[in-house]
Design a protein that fits this description.
With about 350 residues, this protein is of the alpha+beta class. It has eight helices and 21 strands. It has two domains: about 5-230, 3-Layer(aba) Sandwich (Rossmann fold), CATH 3.40.50; about 240-355, OB fold (Dihydrolipoamide Acetyltransferase, E2P). Helix content is about 25%, strand content about 35%. The structure holds adenosine-5'-diphosphate and magnesium ion (MG). Its EC number is 3.6.3.20.
């Protein structure tokens, strides 16, 4: 079921929670709604579910305008951060509950519940009550309950944020698998960019109720449309270097100038630079992803010297905190690089974003 949002707008008293959102969610895809707390993610889900009404704009399922369709007739499955299971009911009873409401015969309902339980891998746990289940297991029950009516749309609002880091990663894969198997059009709300990057077909990134960019994870990372997008994605985060830049024939010259220091000039080829704004001036900010550099101990032409203030081994990578003059940055080097705190290293930029 394709979902189409046109000029979708929601105000609360004094708050413009969502401003004129236009977006199309392709049938069978998994789209993440990503952005900082308060940017309007839950508002979008609730508008799609029909739990709140828009001030302006429409929600379409296929060609059908849903604005006047009651939530219970929208055929939606929803899962929230809090598992919201009935504590006195077994997992099975919880899962079956929506079918019971629809007066589906018990035997048929329970058979269907067992199928779904298998899909979300809790078939062994069906007789337990919620308090005898771990957080991850409870959330699986909640997902099963959301899926049992064969909804045409699955809405998940930060479903894993109460889980510990390891379980969260496991559940990411799980939801991706479930979504692939069922092919249900799914909207997944998260403020965690890594989570969104790892599971989504498309990411819809919001800030303060406004759409920033809507595309696939790779393109959003490589070709951010503005500074907010570039800065929101990536871990460790994007480095931002204050510099002057100008275009010279077939290449770019970037100049780092700071009072009390000699200026540093480096040049970058056209294909190493991505402009992420329509209004780039010569006094700019250059975004450098931590992994988009080569770190060397030997002085080299076209490199920026910086002093190493901190080193951290992260799995198979070395995170190196450095200062370029008085600007703090973090870069990634191979884990076996022989780099020490207090040394000067030379950074060769492979790719830069201009804002
Ligand atoms: N019922 C409400 N009354 C007033 N303001 C609200 C209400 N619900 C949400 N808001 C405000 O609308 C904005 C968007 O909220 P929300 O969609 O919940 O953000 P998110 O889910 O991205 O954290 C926030 O500023 C929030 O405080
Ligand atoms: Mg929310």
């Amino acid at each position: 079921m394709d979902i189409r949002l046109t000029n979708l707008t929601k105000h609360y008293e004094g708050v413009e929670a969502l401003r004129g959102l236009n977006a199309e969610i392709k049938s069978g895809s998994l789209v993440s709604l990503l952005g900082p707390s308060g940017c309007g993610k839950s508002t979008i889900l609730n508008l799609i579910a029909g739990l709140i009404e828009p001030n302006e704009g429409e929600v379409f399922f296929g060609d059908k305008n849903m604005n006047n369709v009651e939530p219970e007739h929208r055929n939606i499955g929803m899962v929230f951060q809090s598992y919201a299971l009935y504590p006195h009911m077994s997992a099975l009873k919880n899962i079956v509950f929506p079918l019971k409401m629809k007066k589906v015969p018990k035997k048929e309902a329970e058979e269907r519940a067992k199928e779904i339980a298998k899909l979300v891998k809790i078939e062994e746990l069906l007789n337990r009550k919620p308090k005898a289940l771990s957080g991850g297991q409870q959330q699986r029950v909640a997902i099963a309950r959301a899926l049992i009516k064969n909804p045409q749309v699955l809405l998940l609002d930060e479903p894993f944020s109460n889980l510990d880091a390891r379980l969260r990663i496991e559940m990411r894969e799980e939801i991706k698998n479930i979504q692939k198997k069922t092919q249900i059009t799914t909207l997944f709300v998260t403020h965690d960019q890594e989570e969104a990057m790892s599971i989504s077909d498309q990411i819809l990134l919001l800030n303060e109720g406004e759409l920033q960019q809507y595309t696939n994870p790779k393109e959003m990372y490589d070709e951010p449309r503005n500074r907010f997008v570039a800065n929101f994605l990536g871990n460790p985060p994007l480095n931002i270097l204050k510099a002057l830049w100008k275009k010279e024939e077939d290449h770019f010259v970037i100049e780092v100038q700071q009072e009390g220091y000699d200026s540093i000039k480096i040049s970058l080829q056209e294909n190493q630079v991505k402009a992420c704004s329509d209004k780039i001036t010569t006094q700019t900010e250059v975004g450098i992803r931590p992994e988009n550099v080569i770190v060397r101990k030997e002085k080299k032409e076209n490199s920026i010297p910086c002093s190493v203030s901190h080193i951290q081994l992260m799995g198979k990578e070395l995170y190196i905190k450095v200062q370029i003059k008085n600007q703090k940055m973090i870069f990634i080097a191979p884990w076996n690089s022989d780099i020490n705190v207090g040394e000067t290293v030379y950074i060769e930029i492979q790719k830069a974003l201009l804002f």
